[in-house]
Amino acid sequence: MLNSASEDPGLDEAPILHIDLDAFFASVEILDDPSLEGKPVCVGGAGERGVIASASYEARRFGVRSAMPSVVARRACPDLIILPGRFDRYEAYSRRFHDVVRDLTPDFEPIGLDEMFCDLRSLRRLGVRPVAAAHELRSRISNELALRCGVGLGRNKLFAKLASKQSKPRVVGGRLVEGTGVFWASREVEEKWLNELPVRSLWGVGPATASKLEKLGLQWVRDLARVDQETLAHHVGPSMAASLFAYAKGEDLREVVADRALKSVGRDQTFAKSLEGIDQVLEMSRAQAAVVARALREESRVARTITVVVRFDDLTSISRSQTLSFGIDDEVSIAAIAEALLQSVELRQAVRLLGIHASSFLERDKNQVQLSFALETTSDDPRQRAATISRERQTGSEALRDAVDEVRQRFGRAALATVAELGEEGIHIETQRGSHAFGPGGAS
DNA sequence: TCTGGGGTCCTAGGACCC
DNA sequence: TCTGGGGTCCTAGGACCC
Q: Could you read off the pLDDT of A2-19 as tens digits, one per residue?
């Protein structure tokens, strides 16, 4: 029986729950503006370079999908309403979503703002039944958030995720067909899926891996069970091979990890009109550095590694990164490192996307510069306090100068040469990347 | 039709240490 | 003098998730 949601498995058969809000961003927009009800609504970038982030089911009837370029979406649905997105609002709804789930169990792992896995096993002694818990979650989210969702239950993450997808409404021949809302992947369903699903439906298999697998004659999940893991590893790497091999047998050892630590924050921007020249790039990077700095402070983190990303008009990207011996969280420091890194990039084309990322976090109070700063503030003597503050500030700025110097050194002193620094005749510099002549007209 | 922005993880090579 | 292998860190790039 395909729709086995009416059956009532125990926790051993359905320990993992996956829950996914329907058309999340678009649904929040419709809740906040009921005049949008029943209309094809999307959230995404409306410009020439925009893509759809979330599409209402009304929009999906026209073939509009998330990740679709907005130009394409509008062609498919000329009346499409594309809204810019209000992520603070979505985050607020997401927190309420988490609160509802937390009432059931603390063992949940968010995936993005609108979905999560739950491990129900800690609820055993409460006598919780998975299907009943799933229905309870759905009705609370409907009543308290006015949002709809799909819930999947299975033996592991693999099947729980496939099951929630199965539970969802879908468009068939331009018509919307209601989903079951809750779906449990029984043993019979597992077997059917492993026999019938394409490799592309597996977690971690995107366009690139699917195409590699297809060249090996592996189009279906069932095909994966026939190859040996070493052959697979040769083409997709050992880690992917191990996952795929396990998935093909219905095995998935991934645990539900609650409270996953944040590992990086960043700001990327694609520009409607590409940036031309280093001045525009640096101006934009300073604004991005301020955004990244604010995000770090909101998370109470300091970062040791700063990465800049540049995507050119031909869609090729390059990145440059620098790891410091200490952590930073202020825009001046981040901007200084980013600038030194960006100066080392040859701007061979206009810049379509620019990004700054911060990673290798330290706890704020484990950062050496910050640590001594914290210690001195405990001092009762105001003069000693002031002295220590200025000493620490000095230490911080010296350390930053050293770091910038290090970037210069890595990429060659030329990396930071500006026209103002150069003489009339220009200079000739040997770098690790070959020799470059620099003059008042710029690099040649 | 032509590809965003928030992230995570993996891989490979080089530097460095023992 | 020339050589090894393992571990860890850093860098750059790529793929994937929503």
A: 455 557 899 999 999 999
Q: Terminal CA-to-CA distance of chain A, rounded, Å?
A: 71
Closest nucleotide over all strands to A54 (CA to C1'): C18
* CATH fold of the domain at A197-260: DNA polymerase; domain 1 (1.10.150)
Protein-contacted bases of chain C (C-beta within 7 A): 9-18
Whole-number distance in Å between A254 CA and C17 C1': 15
Instruction: Determine the topology of domain A1-186 in CATH.
Output: Alpha-Beta Plaits (3.30.70)
Residues A161 and A152: beta-carbon distance below 8 Å: yes
A389 CA, C18 C1': Å apart:
44
Best CA proximity match to A232, nearest among A220, A253, A218: A218
Identify the burial level of A361 via C-beta atoms within 10 angstroms of its C-beta, where 0-12 means exposed, 13-18 middle and 19 or more buried.
buried
Q: What's the one-letter identity of residue A78?
A: P
A115 catalytic? Reply is yes
pLDDT computed for residue A380 by the predictor: 45
Question: What's the predicted TM-score (pTM) here?
Answer: 0.87
Q: Are A69 and A50 in contact (CB under 8 A)?
A: yes
Q: Mind listing the pLDDT tens digit for each residue in A104-143?
A: 999 999 999 999 999 999 999 999 999 999 999 999 999 9
Residue A394 is encoded by which pair of tokens?
Answer: 């000095």
Active-site hit among A29, A58, A109, A115: A115
Q: Which two tokens stand for residue A352?
A: 């379509």
Residue A275 DSSP symbol: E
* CATH class held by domain A264-411: alpha beta
Q: Which residue has the tokens 């990322």?
A: A357
**Which pairing describes strands A182-184 and A149-154: parallel, antiparallel, or unpaired?**
parallel
Q: Is A308 a residue whose pLDDT tops 80? A: yes
Question: Nearest protein residue to B11's C1' (by CA)?
Answer: A237
Q: A410 CA to B15 C1', in Å?
A: 13
Q: How far is the CA of A207 from the C1' of B3 (A)?
A: 13
CB-CB contact of A396 with A390 (8 Å): no
Q: Which of residues 262-301 of A touch strand B (CB under 7 A)?
A: 262-270, 295
Extents of the domains making up chain A: 1-186, 197-260, 264-411
Instruction: Write the single-letter amino acid at A150.
Output: G
Comparing CA positions, the residue from A307, A317, A306 lying closest to residue A352 is A317
Rounded CA-CA distance A213/A197 in Å is 14
pLDDT digits (tens, 9 = 90+) for A180-202: 999 999 999 999 999 999 999 99
β partners of residue A266: A357
